[in-house]
Design goal:
Shape: globular
Number of strands: 5
Radius of gyration: 15 Å
Helix content: under 10%
Number of helices: 0
Strand order of the largest sheet: 1-2-3
Distance between the termini: 32 Å
Mean pLDDT: 83
Oligomer: single chain
Length: 78
């Protein structure tokens, strides 16, 4: 990750990667990505396998809506 980007990140999310092998498809991860806006563009950056403690506060406001598998943030369009 580029220097100074950690302080700009405003949203973080987890993802998994599917890898094909002789035994079938397996998921690896979870990995963390973060995003921030620069001008009019949204920039996504790879954070790593572990979420740094300095970004944990971004997870505090999220919640799961009833019947959904994904997390959402307050104030986000339904």
């Amino acid at each position: 990750m580029k220097r100074g980007v950690l302080g700009k990140i405003r949203r973080v999310y987890q993802y998994w990667v599917k890898q094909k092998s002789k035994d079938g498809v397996k998921r690896t991860g979870p990995y963390w990505r973060g995003s921030y806006t620069e001008g009019n563009k949204e920039v996504s950056v790879y954070i790593g396998k572990e979420l740094p403690d300095s970004l944990r506060y971004l997870l505090d406001g999220r919640y799961k809506r009833p019947g959904c598998n994904e997390y959402t943030w307050p104030g986000r369009a339904e």
